[in-house]
């Protein structure tokens, strides 16, 4: 391996079709006889369905069929939850189409199948549904306190589960602690908002079915479709064509996917469903939505003694694929990069009459990172220390790696000092602190704040046995097949399923290095269970650390196979051959007949005319990689925010991100991932929130109300890297897909609070809207608790600072 | 989502349009640029029987001087208005406010008249028309009628136009030398609607404000003229203190809405802060 | 049903359309021009941006019947003889796309932006693209790509040094 490709900023091979509009989105799929499906959805947060009348709709010209939940009751099964986090967890039945009761606004209750979309939408209005309203359950804390308004009546409670993890002597850590800080933070509900709305096409071919879906997880989808419907897995083919972003929202098995399969079977015709954005805001799984009650005990010098985390996590109405597991990913992460003596984590999953939550970029780690990084700033403020100084006094020093944390994870490598030093230099930290002091002194209308976030995260969502320990049903390995064709060109089959990440480029780079072949000679195949039958797909920043390594390992096997053949053909001992630059040569010999290229070996393998005894004529190799440990990217992010104290408006003045994602395959792609991650993390801090009213209606159903930032709303980021290779895989890679999102949210909020702390502000609930900033300021000025967000009922808020900070 | 069915009428002259409107009945809608109406149709929040599309009524796109006033045709696009030399010279407030409307692609289609006829109090242009004492010229088979902006915006998305009346243009008194103008828009993201906006024009003379026009976006079911601010500031010196004192009166007589992006209380506060800023910016011109 | 005649990417079409048919559905479903995707229903996202008689519009908020007699350019109509348009090339070179769903609209909006302002500042580019949402890139490389295309389109003759990988 000569390392020509690893680390090179290759332009992506995917782009050619994407910049010319020659893309294959699921919604672009056209088939003879294709029918369009639209869903009628519940307008009630909670109601009994007493009658569905579809007759009028059936009579419309062009309507092929109209169905309600009752029509599917015998065959639709229950949507899967693959992460039952506790033994006594309550998992409700989750029919893809509601039969007798609806539990969130947007739940499907009927559907129309018609010859075209316009006809189908018209017919939808002819369906008549009678509902008997039931109480909406929208507030987690109230949902737990009372037992009369229940999301699932037969459970007798709105609590799905309670998980407790404890390590060290927590009581001792808090007893007589010189400093105790208690805070309540709210992780608002978010809508992932991939630019491509969901779409599904299903084609029946006899008793077999092909499904195209805008999914991150074709393999998981096939497996789950089989288990939900009873159709043999071998009779199902799932294709994820070009997929327009996911961010976790397409890591799901949706009711619509199951229903399209059932419709295709029932009608014997291909069917297509494409959601509208407003439909998607209601029914694509949501992210985050936690109330965190955090208590930190520390010594007078800032050293952390103990940390207690108590999380309420909103499940929504049902448990979908990973719903209960997502908040529990915080269990090993709330301690961040810090050393401490004791730690406890309690997570309570709560049912509400809202769209279920599930993975959204970061999934559990952003919530945890926010909690600890906000608390570190609070500790610094309490002790009147620089926020970086408090972190330095607590973080794991680079010479202490590998380090087993209080939660039992072993962080294999890292260098927090190096990343921080680099970030400080790029940020001009001291200069900005001076400007901040000056603005304070001048009582400038616009105050400056500096936010710090020194984060780590766990990537890979593997090893598999670690997943077993936390009761996840998934495996954590990834698979690759490398095929050397007779001409020496290479096909790489991966079980990862990219939707914007650039695997076709990056995996070809890994292959080119491992085999010593030109980049352009490699073709990456993915996203079709017929082509790539084995895999666990793409999520959790796992693709390069597991899937990329599987490719690397498969390539090693190809070289090993080729070596035996080359040795035979060159009439040399295997041990006398060296492999470099795509060519075997006999050590110490030169000239004709002393070397042969991989392509020549491939050609000889194809004909197999002259082959060694007992060797199969194939260079093709498989590898399945299951690592020994997670990987732990880390970094230091610094944010300077200007806060208009009159209006509450926040403008990000500068943002520096120094990330350590281990070895880098393609810096262009890595930077792009960081940029996009930052934008989403900043959006959580400042702009986005899925808001339900007290009746359980989502009020942010369109992009006019759910504010996704545009280019005009975001700053230019300064990004850089340190590279401390991971020790848990041969490439030294750590994963980068979620780092930016995880780190940036607390950096921004810390900056806002830092700008206003001298006014007495200790928190601004997210998203830090101008009104919330203004209210936080006003509350501080008035020195009395302010009702949160008078803009509307049920707003997230309640700073709950413990005055005096002592317990 | 998909619009409901409707009859489609595409007149090529104002007369044809007016006649079509008189025949079409109450449930017909006029389609100007469509940038507000199309989303409403797609979300099925509107079910018009017929759409009368003014897209090909070219005379309605004219912007000209007329009897000493500026006349902006109802179908002049935002893109056209914000670049028009007459508008920039004689009604810079309109040019500035229009530049903050939506985004470039929407401004290519969206029209000045459409925004006013839509009478959305969160829209930026109604307050501007109000501040400038614009007169909206409407036509029906019964003849022309001139409606001062102060009478035009009646309620939330409701104008003083009769169902058979068509807005054909807007007469805007020209602001002469000595006038400065500014539109202070406050929104959470570039694309979002104004939480509050302040349209302001002032005439300075010898260090004092001689004349002031201030109107507010999204501070009630219709745009609101901040009369108390105008009264207070007229005759006072150009200074931060007088602007601040004047702006304290900005929310008087308003009834701001509460929604996702701001409570009535917050809007009341913003109206004051933004009015001071708008006055300062307008007076600096 | 009204009959319309439109020129799309250099080809003339004549079709009977329902008045309510959205231009974007006409392009996608009737003409098979699926390079232009649909990302929202409120004119916010800009994914469906095309040029109508040379200026950018969101084709989800224009009726097909309104395009009668007009010319439309979609992302599929850019570039000549298989050569990429400088904007397409710049998006590729600057890694200004990830999933690519916003890309057709973003490219069309960017071309329109440069038509109005051949030499925009970073701030002008950001403002000019406020009607096109991207969820992957954080916009940073999109801004760079537009800048790069602007340079190239203003000085097509001069040899530009390759940006080092």
UniProtKB/TrEMBL annotation, chain A:
The keyword Oxidoreductase applies. Residues 20-135 form the Aldehyde oxidase/xanthine dehydrogenase a/b hammerhead domain. Residues 791-807 have a biased composition (Gly residues). Keywords: Molybdenum, Oxidoreductase. The keyword Oxidoreductase applies. Residues 785-807 are annotated as: Disordered. SUPFAM superfamilies: CO dehydrogenase molybdoprotein N-domain-like, Molybdenum cofactor-binding domain. It comes from the Bacteria. InterPro entries: Ald_Oxase/Xan_DH_a/b, Ald_Oxase/Xan_DH_a/b_sf, Ald_Oxase/xanthine_DH-like, AldOxase/xan_DH_MoCoBD1, AldOxase/xan_DH_MoCoBD2, AldOxase/xan_DH_Mopterin-bd_sf. SMART domains: Ald_Xan_dh_C. This is Molybdopterin-dependent oxidoreductase. It comes from Actinomadura fulvescens.
TrEMBL record, chain B:
The keyword Hydrolase does not apply. PROSITE patterns: FAD_PCMH. Keywords: FAD, Flavoprotein, Oxidoreductase. Residues 1-177 form the FAD-binding PCMH-type domain. InterPro entries: CO_DH_flav_C (IPR005107), CO_DH_flav_C_dom_sf (IPR036683), Diverse_Substr_Oxidored (IPR051312), FAD-bd_PCMH (IPR016166), FAD-bd_PCMH-like_sf (IPR036318), FAD-bd_PCMH_sub1 (IPR016167), FAD-bd_PCMH_sub2 (IPR016169), Mopterin_DH_FAD-bd (IPR002346). Residues 243-265 are annotated as: Disordered. It comes from the Bacteria. PANTHER family: XANTHINE DEHYDROGENASE SUBUNIT C-RELATED (PTHR42659). This is Xanthine dehydrogenase family protein subunit M. It comes from Actinomadura fulvescens.
From TrEMBL, chain C:
InterPro entries: 2Fe-2S-bd (IPR002888), 2Fe-2S-bd_dom_sf (IPR036884), 2Fe-2S_ferredoxin-like_sf (IPR036010), 2Fe-2S_ferredoxin-type (IPR001041), Beta-grasp_dom_sf (IPR012675), Diverse_Oxidoreductases (IPR051452). Residues 2-78 form the 2Fe-2S ferredoxin-type domain. It comes from the Bacteria. Keywords: 2Fe-2S, Iron, Iron-sulfur, Metal-binding, Oxidoreductase. PROSITE patterns: 2FE2S_FER_2. This is (2Fe-2S)-binding protein.
